[in-house]
Write a structure and sequence with these properties.
It is a single chain. The chain is an alpha/beta fold. It contains 44 helices and 31 strands. Helix 1 crosses helix 2, helix 10 runs antiparallel to helix 11 and helix 15 runs parallel beside helix 17. The longest helix has 29 residues. The protein is globular and about 110 Å long.
Length: about 1150
């Protein structure tokens, strides 16, 4: 076997995951364990060792961003190896084949599959993906028709069950509830590999309720066993209490009752146990601390007792009407689904779920297709498998050979239950592959992201709340997080105070909301962090923490508004990363549509998008008029044949001419340069600037340009090939991925869900006392217990009343367990995002505001499996774990007097901190109110103000807006008539032409300077006079220089970028607005290289000219350093007349 990368130190488990072959492999990869790096190395090793070819692998990722990143990292891995072995022709060939490798989301894979085998499906080869608007319209049409037909059958006596389904879900004459029920059921079945199997399950459970009874009785036993285990734990704690005898006796009485209940086999028998009152407990007058504590602990046991009693009370069977309603509901959903698909196919489209469903049917029903796929794919890699659903998993398993699957993920990070993810798939494989027969299981537990202290803190929480009996996952030695073991890496994770001492990386921030809001406490803590430093991994140097290092995570988007108002008061820049506006402009989608339109003019959907963009400038009303003249056929035909309105006709002609010009331009430019030109010169840049999420939009366009550059450098195929390539890496994203602008120095907020896969130097968890609301679907469901809903029954007067049948009780309790487990996994995801500092905000009343009020102290009960199974929010889960840990002594002091002891534990896992309200604002207000009005003093001030004269009258002739290149001299502006076309250009005009040419010049194009200029002349970018005035000899000299070679290697070149900056006026002390345009800059490692072009004719000493422009370049550099904090700007000037590039 060939050696793996010499650059990376792999752990033993990572090596095993990379090298293992011969059977399926499941890699259970903890947070930050380098799973992506392992996957990249495994793919590369298989190709490098000639066990497969790059075009015979399938890599399925969860998101587009992950697919694009995976492909880019594989290319980088190939480049690294080829740098060491430049004569390896095999690797060069494999790198080319990587462009044909299927690295995409499951939806993109299915799309390509259906296009390839369309003749076996109801789809046409050019089918499209139906967007949400079209989907809703088709759905509304289909459901209305189905319900209308069902009503007709009911009236004709052919569908009796329709009356029952109306009784259960409709309200009076309004069938809106029934529509929602059908659509909700359709959504539930969407993620199932075999919907018919679920329908048969419902027929079984509704004909015999034994499954529900069995589920409830098992759940009651489970609660009893947890309560008994908790009671045993309490005995150990209270046996030395002053009143321990009474406590232990009470615990024994409760334990006996739970043991008795656990032995019962029916609800009636259990109910008889409750006929006796619960064992009573009276505290002694001389009660000690443990006795007081037991009063709260005992309430937990009594709550468990009460919940069991509620389960057993009022057990009602599902009535006959509800049974018939379920049967009718499945019939209506099946009819709706078929009708909906028919309409989609007839319209030449398919939905995202339709892609998967149709692909699975194709694979299952056609042995020839299935065999071709199995023979054509050597290895299948599945990333984030814990988030897959049954349908997705079934597609992949049906095209595998049975020994070539590689699954990677972390079931502790499965947080997409609301999208029908099935973590049980991962759990089942963990169990099955442990034996080594069906496959091998490897655990990656070393974390390379977070500091050792943060890992200890995370372990301390989940070791005490994540249990298999409660969450199906045991947080044992295989699940815990371990440091990488790299001493240098551990050193780099430290957070240093300004006095050089080290700050603990895991912190509980306590806030007494009687004194201070949680938002204010967080704001104050953030400001104090500005005095701390961390090591910058890029430069290897220590740097201060910035606002941009800090990410606040919460459960909901709307939490951000509370933070925003408080942070504004404290002067903290803030951005909610997921804040969206109703009117959003999608520049990326418009540019992609334009590229498609240049390839295929007759694409109606792309044409309409481009017409409504800044290129077309058409209005919706104008498009309606165009379509109105010719309603039949395609919109493209209606567009090109329109002649009804002269004004609109002129716009159409101008647009078609512009398309022709862009098509000619595209043929003469490299792809990345052409996309950059479209972005900068067709109005997209201004449309983006007007949007609230402009930095995300701009970043998405930059990703597109980067993808074009990667494709151009590594693959061939032109525009058509690039569009296919880009579609494979960016399919199914309906919105920009959660992404933070690294140059935006603001504190950011995002939801815990969106943070998955990301990492931040400082993470603050916020508003953890919030409880998420219950599911709002028409009904609940369980894959093992079927559908459940509030049943309706009629009284003797025919009036309907609702009740909770046994089915709803059983399904609700099972779902409560799975939802609680997912909430725990979400907390795990949030906590493991932090690299250098993790702050968990715990806010609430330290002491009750009134005699009967509640407080944080009420949450303190001994943690156990029982408490982990019934927590209400994250604070009630975390606080008791901290309280009963070695770090809990300080928390006890805070509860008592609101202060923390200066004598903290010697080596705490968690550091406790708190904010206390100060009275500075109140004092200032009081001082202001007691000021007296001095009449003589104010009259004197008024006279002085009225007689004042401005001392800098000469400065009034200076412009408020300054140009950097003119900032040292104040000259009159001379207006001249412009010169055009073949006339001779001189001086500054030539300089303008050279700047324009350099703005559009491609450093990566194989064409020479003159050939590119000739193309610009043909496309109308240059006139004849401008073309002949270009100094080709000097331009060719620069294009072949070492500096140009540096520019060619840059990932992106930014040209003609305008900026504004406030500068002080030395004469007056006032300020002026400086506006300028940076000719060119690019990123080179951690530096920004700034280049300014000068066309001055050098007469005399070059140093004089350099000195003349030095201040201008420093202003540009200062502006860029503020735009990109933390980057070093290296300014250069290139003097064309002497062919020299000089560093300033």
């Amino acid at each position: 076997m060939k050696k793996m990368s010499n650059q990376t130190k792999w752990t033993e488990s990572q090596k095993s995951a990379i090298e293992f072959t011969g059977n399926n492999l499941l890699v259970s990869a903890a947070a930050g364990s380098g799973k992506t790096a392992v996957m990249i190395e495994r793919i590369f090793s298989l190709i490098n060792n000639k066990k497969t070819s790059a075009d015979r692998i399938l890599v399925v990722t969860y998101t587009n961003a992950a697919a694009a990143s995976m492909r880019a990292k594989l290319l980088t891995r190939f480049d690294c190896e080829l740098k060491e072995n430049p004569d390896n022709e095999y690797l060069y060939r494999q790198k080319q084949l990587l462009g044909r490798a299927d690295i995409s989301t499951i939806h993109a894979f299915c799309q390509n599959l259906l296009r390839r085998y369309y003749f076996h499906t109801p789809l046409s080869p050019d089918f499209r993906i139906i967007d949400d608007t079209q989907k809703n319209l088709i759905s509304e049409k289909a459901i209305d028709e189905i319900l209308e037909e069902a009503a007709t059958k009911y009236e004709n006596g052919l569908f009796d069950e329709y009356g029952d389904v109306l009784d259960q879900f409709a309200s009076g004459k309004d069938d809106g509830g029934l529509k929602k029920a059908v659509l909700d059921l359709n959504e539930i079945l969407a993620g199932m590999a075999d919907p018919q199997k679920f329908e048969l399950l419902n027929e079984e459970v509704y004909s015999n309720c034994e499954k529900w009874i069995e589920s409830l009785l098992n759940l009651i036993k489970e609660k009893c066993f947890l309560a008994i285990e908790y009671a045993d734990k309490l005995k150990e704690r209270y046996k030395f209490s002053n009143c321990g005898g009474k406590i232990l006796k009470n615990i024994d009485e409760l334990t006996d009752e739970f043991e008795c209940i656990a032995c019962k086999t029916s609800f009636e028998e259990i109910s008889k146990v409750f006929e006796n009152n619960a064992p009573s407990f009276r505290q002694d007058k001389n009660k000690d601390e443990l006795s007081l504590e037991y009063a709260k602990v005992r309430s937990k046991l009594l709550q468990t007792r009460k919940s069991i009693k509620e389960i057993c009370s009022n057990i009602k069977d599902v009535n006959n009407s509800a049974v018939k309603a379920v049967k009718a509901l499945f019939y209506l959903e099946r009819s709706y689904s078929l009708r909906f698909d028919d309409y989609c196919f007839a319209d030449g489209g398919v939905t995202f779920n339709g892609l998967l469903r149709t692909a699975l049917e194709l694979i299952n029903n056609n042995e020839e297709v299935r065999t071709e796929l199995k023979d054509g794919i050597d290895y299948i890699f599945v990333d984030e498998y814990q988030d897959a659903n049954e349908l997705q998993s079934s597609i992949l398993e049906n095209i595998s050979r049975g020994d070539n699957l590689f699954f990677v993920g972390d079931v502790k990070q499965s947080i997409y239950g609301f999208q029908h993810a099935s973590p049980e798939l991962f759990l089942n494989k963990m169990r099955d592959y442990s034996t080594g027969v069906l496959g091998k299981r490897i655990n990656l537990v070393n974390n390379f992201r977070s500091s050792a202290k943060i890992l200890d803190a995370v372990n301390s929480i989940f070791r005490n709340c994540m249990f298999e009996s409660v969450t199906e996952i045991e947080y044992d030695s295989d699940a815990e997080l371990y440091p990488s073991g790299d001493a240098e890496s551990a050193q780099n994770m430290r957070v240093l105070l300004n006095n050089g001492s080290t700050e603990n990386e895991a912190e509980i921030l306590l806030t007494d909301t009687n004194e201070l809001s949680e938002e204010e406490a967080i704001a104050r803590r953030i400001l104090s962090l500005m005095n701390c430093s961390i090591l910058d991994p890029g430069s290897g140097k220590s740097r201060m923490i910035t606002f941009g290092d800090i990410m606040i995570l919460g459960l909901k988007n709307n939490f951000a508004s509370n933070l925003e108002s408080v942070f504004k008061k404290y002067g903290i820049p803030f951005r909610a990363s997921e804040k969206k506006t109703k009117e959003s402009f999608d520049a990326l989608g418009s540019i992609i549509s334009l590229l498609r339109l240049l390839e295929v003019r007759r694409s109606d959907s792309d044409l309409i998008i481009v017409l409504l963009s800044s290129i077309g400038k058409f209005t919706s009303e104008e498009l309606g008029i165009i379509r109105g003249q010719k309603r039949d056929g395609s919109f493209f035909d209606a567009f090109v044949s329109f002649d009804k309105d002269a004004k609109i006709k002129a716009k159409i002609d101008a647009f078609l001419c512009e398309l022709d010009r862009l098509e000619l331009l595209q043929a003469s430019m490299s792809l990345p340069d052409f996309i950059t030109y479209v972005y900068n010169k067709t109005g997209f840049v201004y449309s983006i600037a007007a949007t609230e999420n402009s930095f995300i939009q701009e970043e998405n366009v930059n990703i597109l340009i980067s993808a074009a550059r990667t494709y151009s450098e590594n693959f061939s195929g032109g525009l058509r090939g690039f569009l296919k390539y880009y579609e494979s890496i960016s399919f199914t994203d309906s919105s920009p991925a959660a992404k933070i602008n690294e140059n935006d120095n603001s504190v950011h907020y995002m939801t815990m869900h969106k943070s998955k896969g990301l990492e931040f130097p400082v993470v603050i968890l916020y508003n953890l006392s919030h409880s998420r609301k219950e599911n709002k679907n028409t009904f609940r469901y369980s894959k093992s217990l079927g559908l459940a809903f509030k049943a309706q029954e009629k009284d003797v007067f025919g009036l309907r009343t609702g009740y909770d049948p046994i089915s709803l009780k059983a399904v609700n309790l099972e779902n409560a367990r799975s939802e609680s487990a997912e909430k725990l996994r979400l907390l795990y995801v949030a906590m493991t995002r932090a690299k250098n500092k993790l702050i968990v905000s715990v806010a609430g009343r330290r002491a009750p505001a009134s005699k009967n009020g509640s407080s944080l102290q009420d949450l303190i009960v001994l943690p156990s499996k029982l408490t982990a199974s019934s927590y209400s929010d994250y604070v009630s889960l975390i606080l008791p774990i901290i309280f009963f840990s070695p770090d809990g002594e300080q928390l006890k002091e805070w509860f008592e007097d609101g202060m923390l002891s200066s004598f903290a534990p010697e080596n705490p896992v968690w550091t406790l901190a708190f904010s206390k309200k100060d009275d500075s604002a109140k004092t200032l207000k009081n001082e202001t109110e007691t000021e007296f009005f001095d009449k003589d003093e104010y009259l004197s001030k008024i006279k002085s103000a009225l007689s004042w004269q401005y001392p800098y009258l000469s400065a009034t002739n200076m412009r408020a807006k300054q140009n950097p290149s003119k900032s040292q001299e104040h000259t009159r502006m001379m207006l001249r008539s412009p010169k055009f076309d073949d006339k001779e250009y001189k001086g500054a005009q030539k300089g303008t032409i050279v700047h324009f040419f350099m703005e559009h010049f491609s450093f990566t194009s194989p064409l020479s300077v003159r050939e590119q200029a000739e193309n610009m002349l043909k496309c109308g970018l240059l006139s004849n006079g401008e073309f002949t005035s270009l100094p080709f000899e000097h331009l060719e000299s620069f294009a072949s220089s070492d500096f140009a070679a540096r520019m060619k290697k840059a990932p992106a070149i930014y040209r003609e970028r305008p900026f504004c900056k406030i500068i002080p006026l030395e004469e007056t002390g006032d300020e002026a607005l400086m506006q300028g345009t940076v000719d060119c800059y690019f990123f080179e490692g951690d530096n920004i290289v700034l280049l300014d072009y000068k066309t001055d004719i050098i007469r005399g000493d070059l140093e004089e000219y350099i000195a003349r422009h030095r201040r201008q370049l420093h202003m540009y550099a200062d502006a860029l350093s503020k735009l990109y904090p933390g980057k070093t700007v290296l300014p250069y000037i290139h003097f064309f007349s002497v062919d020299k590039t000089v560093k300033i």
